[in-house]
Amino acid sequence: MLVSYQWLNQYVDLNGVTPEKLAEELTRGGIEVDVIHPLDQGVENVVTGVVKKVEPHPGADRLRVCTVDAGKEEPLNIVCGAPNVAEGQTVAVALPGARLPGGVKIKKTKLRGVPSEGMICSAQELGMPEKLLPKEQQEGILVLPAETGVGEDAKAVLGLEDVVLELDLTPNRSDCLSMWGVAYEVAALLDREVHLPVTEERMPVGKTKPVDVVLDAEEDCPFYATQVVEGIRLGESPRWMQNRLLAAGIRPINNVVDITNYVMLEYGQPLHAFDYDQVEDGEIVVRRGGTGETVTTLDGVTRACDDRTLLITDGTKPIGIAGVMGGENSEVKEGTTTVLIESAYFAPESIRRTARRLGLRSEASTRFEKGVDPERVIPALTRAVELMVQLAGGKVASPVTAERMGEIEDVIVELRHNRLTGVLGVQVEEKAVLDVFRRLRFPTEVNDGVYRVQVPSRRPDISIEVDLIEEVARLYGYDRIPTTLPWGQQSPGALTPEQRLRRVIRHSLRDAGFHEVINYSLTSPDRLRELEPVLYKEARPIRISMPMSDERKVLRTSLVPQLLETAEYNVHRREEGVSVFELARVFVTEEKKLTRQPEERWALAGLVTGATSPHWQKRNGAPDFFTVKGMLEWLFERLGVNGISFEAAQPEGYHPGRTARIKQDGRVIGVLGQVHPKTASAHDLDDTYVFELDLEPVTEAALNRVIRYETLPKHPDTTRDLALVVDEGIPVGELEKTIHSAGGELLQSVSLFDVFTGEQIGEGKKSVAFSLRYQAGDRTLTDEEVAEVHQNVIQRLEEKHGAVLRK
Amino acid sequence: MREKLESLKREAEEKIRAASDPEGLKELRVKYLGKKGEITSVLRGMKDLSPEERPVVGALANEVRNRLEEWIRAKESELEEARLQARLKRETVDVTLPGQPRPLGGVHPLNAVIEQIEDIFVGMGFEVAEGPEVETDYYNFEALNLPKDHPARDMQDSFYITPELLLRTQTSPVQVRSMQSKEGKVPVKIICPGKVYRRDDDDATHSHQFTQVEGLVVDRGIAMSELHGTLLAFAEQMFGEKLESRLRPSYFPFTEPSVEMDISCVQCGGSGCRMCKYSGWIEILGAGMVHPRVLERGGYDSERYTGFAFGMGPERIALLKYGIDDIRQFYTNDLRFLRQFQSV
């Protein structure tokens, strides 16, 4: 809502309250003022004048030499380039020495040899809002009404001395979508009087035109009033009205339409004017539309109705969509002499629904959607009729014809004083509370600590006790509410173990050199298909019903695909190495059509590509499979997660020889692998390694770990090395398993220290060397004991894997 | 014999002084002091001396032996010292050369801010709750006093999946969920950080995905003054200084009275600058007293209990704290951006 300071000043005396101060008061009162727009953008020394003579310019086809009477002793000689300049026009003249918006200064000059003593201004040159002006005013000079005097300050004539406050209204304060509403609010905030003019109904003079109103959808339209005015002379509305409309951001059109808009701004009650001659028999029937029915609206678009579209009809044909837009067939246009003015209360839900469905939002629908004040339906109508008579030459041709279902009841809300002080935490005196209601103009009685407050219909946002508490707090002053800390029962605050663990993971990865990233939950199905899922194979990505773009269509089921994008983005910005991770939820469901909330599972994914931090001593090599595997093992160790194994896998999109499923106690919990070179190069990436873990089993294992002290060994250990030749295809992991099971409880640890292939080993073979550490808790092992177990290990390796001991 | 000892002494002294390495010194020790060394052989000739002379020469021989011993030891440590000095010289490095880098990553600045918020509220006795990102229309709107036709739904156009399921537009649904899970017990003191989604085109100040931290306190006798006190305590810890704060009336369907909280500008301290649009104040969050209807939906008798709720944007807090000017930076994952927050 744009509020003219000068206009408001008519209703509430703003003496001593600057626009800035007013803005501050409103903002502190809960009506946020977003911007203060001074309409005068530095215009100085621009006056009105009359064009006396227009002659061609001797040196330029497009220029004209005008003689302008601007109230000075001598007429001014002004060269003008506007095509619409004509003798007899009243115009705005920037005199020599004048200033225009943007710091433009006007001087006496010569244009193509002809002296020019100033400039005839266009609306735009004066800083008026171009897009709200009629076309002819956008293109040429601004032509003022003939009755405007000569030599007057153009700023005053054009209303440019005003200041407009732009209010950012919250949805509950639709009462401030009108000047009256703002006036009540300001009067309450400043504790000043409010003066609102009252208009009496005008009775018809001469023969009455027939009017009949039928409400066929009373739920959607319980109240409809209308009055007919004839003898209308359609034309421009007066300058002052246009100025106010412009200040409010509304385009002036013609006097009839301008009056309906003006009254809407005054009262907050949208009005519509129909061409009475197009309304059959003067009958108005308000009903719901039928499926298949269409209405061509004022903007020339034919719109389909449904059975909940509320229509204004004349009994035979629709002439408008209620509260949203009038019909083309009943438009007030050249030739219209008689108008039927509509003032009604339409149910907010109905208008909201239709406006949404048609994608049509207007000043009118915005107000109806939020609920207009039924008490203002008739006053707004009579005010419009009065203005039609005063400004458009109209004669009243019917009395007010109104149909209303039900009565408007007074709303009484009770407020308990102790509840008020309890909720606010401040001791407000009864006197102060009563004072607030007096300023709000809410009639109030108080009895035994209970206020009975009569809430006027202009404030539909107030219906329960707490609404009144808010009103009191607002006007009493939020700044008078002290600051205390809750004193009630104490509660231990803490993160849950899961939350703490997620922090540990994120901090550990940071310490391991990974940058945490956050990608969007919404992605494209194609992106997700780039890598075959290893987790949640059956999950169907959930689609958004109306996506904003193809890139943001489905909820992700995996975090890895977007990490490829992140890496690509950074590599394109000359990053040599990228190590990133994300910890976020993925959305898992097997349902084709979602009927219940999906499972939201925490996932951890990472990506490593390119060299890590080169150093002057040596260039660190590019990472390989084991760099990333080692990091993961380090992380599992940090979390105390045991029982992890890696098993070769060949999911699509990954390198078939360098990818593993990660298992924990036999269950697949993740994937680790090199991205397939084809996939990687599609993202301009070299060797790239990724991993992804389902965090739930990891969390569970980490939280279930038991840390118990064991006495330190008292007896020395013995180490034996073991070098074997085996078939190249046998995984070392299998050998280790065999060693562990054969070594039994005396075997404390196995560590691989060498793997190689080569001629001396033989084709298709590899040499593997382990170091085995034996120890017993209760005695020093003898050589014989160790030899026996070790021999057993060797024997099992020979039997199970055909291993040959290297001597 | 005396002369012999004296000349041995002189000769040895010279040789020891001239020795240039421990090996040579070792040889000298053997030569003079060894079992077959020259002093020993002189002593062996003692038997030929007169009994009067014997003790005198014996004393002299001992003295010479001790002196030689002393000189050799002194020379030894001298050589050792020289060798150590040489080594230290050899080992000298240019300390201005760069160190071997340890790769350092970073926690995302948004999560870093969320962690700080969590820590502050945990310190004030809050628990950290979580809720689903795919939420039901009921919890996201209806239970929060936003029925289907409510005009306030305009404030947040939503990503619907089905007519009943959507991506949550706010973390507020966790309010009712938390109350329900507490089953009427008090106090309820939770915060809930998380992702939220709205149908906004991404630009410098909008993002279709962003984060929020919701807070809720329900107990007997909770008043607005406590809301103010709690939030001010938070702001002072977050921005690390004494701050002025003010509450302004606002509107949220699920709180009443509703407020927005401003703090004195963290950049200029309130004197007015570009960041605070020369007002001296910066809005940091929305809050209010829990609406009685929301309390009832959570299973709490609104006559017996009151509460307050608040919601803040970690993006906004990070913008203010670090002077970031474009919200898209949080989701672009440019390493040049992320690296700036490594030490957060």
UniProtKB/TrEMBL annotation, chain A:
GO cellular component assignments: phenylalanine-tRNA ligase complex
One Pfam family matching this protein: tRNA_synthFbeta
Top EC class of this enzyme: ligase
EC number(s) recorded for this UniProt protein: 6.1.1.20
Cofactor: Mg(2+)
GO terms classed as biological process: phenylalanyl-tRNA aminoacylation
UniProt-annotated binding residues for Mg(2+): 461, 467, 470-471
Residue span(s) of domain TRNA-binding: 40-155
Keyword Ribosomal protein: no
Cell compartment(s), UniProt: Cytoplasm
Source organism, top-level taxon: Bacteria
Principal location listed in the UniProt entry: cytoplasm
Span of domain B5: 408-483
Limits of the FDX-ACB domain: 713-806
HAMAP family attached to this UniProt entry: Phe_tRNA_synth_beta1
Subunit structure, interactors included: Tetramer of two alpha and two beta subunits.
Family: Belongs to the phenylalanyl-tRNA synthetase beta subunit family. Type 1 subfamily.
Protein name according to UniProt: Phenylalanine--tRNA ligase beta subunit
Recorded name of the encoding gene: pheT
UniProtKB/TrEMBL annotation, chain B:
Cofactor requirements of the protein: Mg(2+)
Binding positions (Mg(2+)): 256
EC nos: 6.1.1.20
Coiled-coil ranges from the UniProt annotation: 61-92
GO CC terms, sorted: cytoplasm
Free-text comment on the cofactor: Binds 2 magnesium ions per tetramer.
InterPro entries hit by this protein: aa-tRNA-synth_II, aa-tRNA-synth_II/BPL/LPL, Phe-tRNA-synth_IIc_asu, Phe-tRNA_ligase_II_N, Phe_tRNA_ligase_alpha1_bac, Phenylalanyl-tRNA_Synthase, tRNA-bd_arm
Chief place of localization: cytoplasm
Keyword Aminoacyl-tRNA synthetase applies: yes
Name of this chain's protein: Phenylalanine--tRNA ligase alpha subunit
Organism: Melghirimyces profundicolus
Organism ancestry: Bacteria, Bacillati, Bacillota, Bacilli, Bacillales
Gene name for this UniProt entry: pheS
